[in-house]
UDP-glucose 6-dehydrogenase
Amino acid sequence: MRVTIFGTGYVGLVTGTCLADVGHDVVCVDIDQAKVDGLNRGVIPIYEPGLEPMVKANHAAGRLTFTTDAPSAIAHGDIIFIAVGTPPDEDGSADLKYVLAVARTIGGHLERGVVVVNKSTVPVGTADKVRQTIAGELAARGVDVAFDVVSNPEFLKEGDAVNDCMRPDRIIVGASSQQAIDRLKRLYAPFNRNHERIVVMDVRSAELTKYAANAMLATKISFMNEIANIAERVGADVEMVRQGIGSDPRIGWHFIYPGAGYGGSCFPKDVQALARTSQQHGYRAELLGAVESVNERQKGHLFELIERHYGGSIAGRTFAVWGLAFKPNTDDMREASSRRLLQQLWDAGARVRAYDPEATEEAQRIFGEREDLVLCDSARAALADADALVVVTEWKQFRSPDFQRLRQSLTDAVIFDGRNLYHPDEVEAAGLAYYGIGRGRSIQSH
Ligand code: UDX
């Protein structure tokens, strides 16, 4: 099928590439000429495992092209995706200016019947706004073509996005016309083998499903962080508690890892946006507010542990920081817990030597040159002249360090483990002090 995708950001690029990979003829549109030129040369603007070779192969095969020419792209697609950003407004609600700008462009050039698909995460009711915007433009041009607007939210995880897209556990299609449903079923048929993954529903339920999924996952994380903070005070170990509850299938093993707080482009933004939508409809969503405030507090927790260890005298010390990205396998630092930690350390007069396998360039861009930050090119280099080690992102390569060597490198022989990668007994047996998240047993011994 012929597919057009507006937006070559994370969602648009991954979706377009996967659709091309199963044989569709995909044109991706972006307003950023440099990005489009780069993509046509095989330069991928994001780090995502497996994506680059797929983009190159499908581009070479002629199934995936990138352009800034919106009118010809609109003429190309039987299905037109909107996959542009929805950054948070000042009040936390999703800003629809990019989505509606694309809708105006579509309405300004459409000459034949198409299905317009909202892939961006947008508040309930946006599909109606997109429909009205396109209809308004068509009316202004005096053109009469039939079109449908469908909600088809994405559930990609950064770092595993290609896999999520190629092997989705569900495909949500929110539509009111049978013709649109049939067209999306044809589009997704290659991803819908062996058992039915397509869940058809009305447009508003589909829009809410996306927020509900992310809010539920964020809730699980904040819940565990809350339990971790209780564990710390009562002298229990949250890692034991996690194992004790995860075995109950009603709770499950996923997303119950306590840590330095959730970050990224989705959870913080979507929890806030859902709370805001709910408020606009006259309902105060108590739980969502708590999920967010627990997370905000949690992002400051590593620093609290550091302050506690040093009795508040942090000025002049040097901290090795392992991990800057908001999670492993990405270079994304949006809302990353590392950003809060580094700022707190700097405000307290400390220096930072940081290492991240992928996010160095991004960190350089965000922080610029500063004398209290050295971005190192290996985990070991970050340890040089450091007083203590703080682990913020659970990259695989940080999982089993040589604790003896760490003890020799770190002047104060102490580890602050923001992702509970290590076992307190093992670290302490090597002669280091250990602080994890919610590990009351070891914390109370300091
Ligand atoms: C998330 C959703 O998983 C995905 O379905 C949706 O489409 C977009 O938002 P993503 O933001 O890429 O994906 O990251 P995810 O792997 O979900 O992690 C989000 C954050 O939660 C990370 O900062 C991670 O460290 C944290 N996290 C996750 C925890 O602190 N504990 C956990 O148990 C799981």
The pocket of uridine-5'-diphosphate-xylopyranose is lined by residues 154-158, 214, 217, 221, 255-257, 259, 262-264, 266-267, 326-327 (CB under 6 Å).
